[in-house]
Amino acid sequence: MKKKEAKKDPKDMRHGYTTGACATAATRAALTALIFQELQKEATITLPIGKQVSFEISTCEFTGESATAGTIKDGGDDPDATHGALILSTVSWSKVSGVELDGGIGVGRVTKPGLPVEVGKAAINPVPYKMIMEVTQSILQQFEIQEGVRVVISVPDGEEIAKKTLNARLGIIGGISILGTRGTVVPFSTSAYKASIAHAINVAVTVGCEHLVLATGGRSEKFGMELYPDLPEEAFIEMGDFIGFTLKTCKNKKVKKVTLVGMMGKFSKVANGVMMVHSKSAPIDFNFLAKVAAESNVDETTLENIKSANTASQVGEMMLEQNNDLFFDKLCEYCCLSGLNEVDGNIEIETVISTLKGVLLGRKTLYSTLQNEE
Question: What top-level class of enzyme does the UniProt entry assign (predicted)?
């Protein structure tokens, strides 16, 4: 019998490099090959965090007019959709002075407002854009080259990779985004996930959405879409475990109404005021669930069973067996109250709890004008 491999401690996980860092390294290699007409096998760049890193150049071709170089993206131990992708940069001489940077095959185009890149432009985010421009300009200055150059970043498998991301919903069509603010990829980074949530909310608000449906996962999001078939796709956002962060971002963006959609496990925590609902962040409080059940006219025997339950789903099954709809509605009400308390009110919050198979258990909407007057 094969021994089960132990999970790595987060501290021991290997960091990787962003698509932006890879594109910058590929650009350095391509421009150097173009200038010296020599094959490049390595390119060293300085990351935004100040660290110098050398990238292996896996492909390099050149003529007197243009050069293309590429490196394979290493995402480290992060389950990144772009891990293993070939990131290419083609640099060619131009009759136009200065440096022109664009995206080619496999790099998406921005079609909706609200992202940090203008509509119509290649989806190369501001920090990678700056990195690529700076490395190109520094090489041209170093060798006193006056000619203009055109840089095109491409990802041969980018369009296929993009299908595994939310790019299309954000309005990034035809490929992936060239991303990265640090240059490195931190495995299972919460900051990266939060950034994607913030971008999604910004796009939704910019295109005019006043009601957003925030789901804890894919199944919950699908259920939310069934509840609100008339809402545009931008209105549906996967917030994962980041309930508090997502609600605060919605409040800051002046979203009028949010609908939280999820299942018993995570929403049992939200109802009790926990706004980061990862399994390791806080255990289920079964005494709290017993309190909600007591308010729902549950008998003493069931209350004791709830207190000794193993999972929130088990509690839900008990309530389903007793046809106690009041319990689920009360749990939803507590979720709404927790959300309103988190953002100091002035937003309408609806909570919907469903089963894994998409059966509606409870639904409640609350609005509060609670707000700090300081």
Answer: transferase
